[in-house]
Design goal:
Helix content: 55-70%
Oligomer: single chain
Shape: globular
Strand content: under 5%
Largest sheet: 2 strands, antiparallel
Radius of gyration: 18 Å
Distance between the termini: 40 Å
Number of helices: 8
Number of domains: 2
Structural class: mainly alpha
Strand order of the largest sheet: 1-2
Length: about 150
């Protein structure tokens, strides 16, 4: 194998790893999806295995996973960032779990505001099962990834 041919799979791996960055615009997200697909075609050839066998999250799922990890670290006090600065806890309605109140998204008028971390994470966190919200910060990455793959 030539030195250049060893370098190409490494570039495909780098493209797959960088799909965790949070794009603010839909065009950027579509570019990341195309890059991930190109890398997968290069690695697996014409026939890609199903996503469950790849053990790889799609680009939108990877973005949600990164948001969840950062938000959980913020709630556990691992990072200095105060994630709940703009997010408020909503009222508990009849039938809601009082131990897990729903988070209320901060006001956003533009598309850029709707793609900010505070706005994105509140919606996804509300849809998450309570068992994931209660798990420890050390167990959270593996359980969250399993939840997002099965979703």
């Amino acid at each position: 194998m030539h030195a250049e041919s060893k370098k190409i799979p490494r570039q495909a791996e780098i493209i797959l790893r960088f799909t965790g960055m949070a794009p603010f615009l839909k065009d950027e997200q579509e570019k990341m999806i195309r890059g991930q697909n190109r890398a997968l075609h290069f690695i697996h050839g014409r026939r890609n295995p199903p996503p469950i066998q790849q053990n790889l999250l799609s680009v939108p799922a990877q973005l949600v996973y990164n948001d969840f990890l950062f938000f959980k670290k913020c709630l556990a006090g691992v990072t200095d960032y105060f994630a709940m600065a703009r997010i408020t806890k909503g009222r508990v309605h009849h039938g809601n779990d009082p131990l897990h109140p729903r988070l209320q998204q901060p006001p956003a008028r533009t598309d850029l505001g709707k793609n900010m971390f505070d706005f994105r994470v509140a919606k996804e966190w509300n849809d998450m099962p309570p068992a994931l919200k209660d798990c420890l910060a050390a167990q959270f990455p593996s359980t969250c990834k399993a939840y997002l793959i099965s979703r």
